[in-house]
Amino acid sequence: MSIIEDKQRIETAVSDIKTQIINKGVNVPEGTRIDGIPSLISSIPSGGGDDETLKAIIDRSITSVIVSDGMTSIGTAAFHSCIELKTVSIPNSVARIGENAFYKCSNLASAELPDSITSIEKQAFANCINLNISKLPDGLKSLGVQAFFGCENITLTSLPVGITTFRDGEFRGCKKLALTHFESSVKDIGYYCFAYCIGLTSITFKGIPTLIHSTAFNGCTNLTTINVPWSEGAVANAPWGATNATINYNYTEESEVT
Known about the structure:
Elements: H1 3-23, E1 64-66, E2 73-74, E3 87-89, E4 96-97, E5 110-112, E6 119-120, E7 142-143, E8 165-166, E9 181-182, E10 188-189, E11 202-205, E12 211-212, E13 225-227, E14 246-248, H2 253-257
Parallel strand pairs: 1-3, 2-4, 3-5, 4-6, 6-7, 8-10, 9-11, 10-12, 11-13, 13-14
């Protein structure tokens, strides 16, 4: 296939994709620079290029988005810095939200996250300071570094049981985070993962992690109680940055009753 033919094929594909996006309410104005077939789309034509270099074709001033049913992935930086974006509706066909997908969407207040989502990648929602969600997808198994960094208004009280590793800074600065417990499946909590989450007051571990990093709860000034089912010294680095907390070792639900 010649370069001209390949260029025409890609231009046709891009035109079709733009039409699909427009039909779903995302404005793609004339004159928008096209860097490639958008990573927002769940699949690309064979030979369409390296997916890591593809950019979403969208108007950065959009205020709401309905992702098409049937799409499986929201790609890298798809809505990066769309500061006017306020609402996003994601269908239950989507399994992955890519790196920086909604990074710095500072006015994003509502995002419907279906249980089909299994992976939310690095900084996917970082610095979405107005994002208000109270529940993560039940099917979620992987969170990237700083996935919800600086999301000051999320109000989660629990986390999906499928997540076994919490990476560095995932919920750092989430001031209204209201977690009450960690599931027995949790094995690793990274550096500054829950740092400066001043909404935390009491946390109960249901199992014994392999590692909790020394700054995991740094700056959690209102965290005064940590209940753990292990003996003192069994998990290193206590109090894991929570300098105001009393740690109740060998804790069980029965001990709370008594």
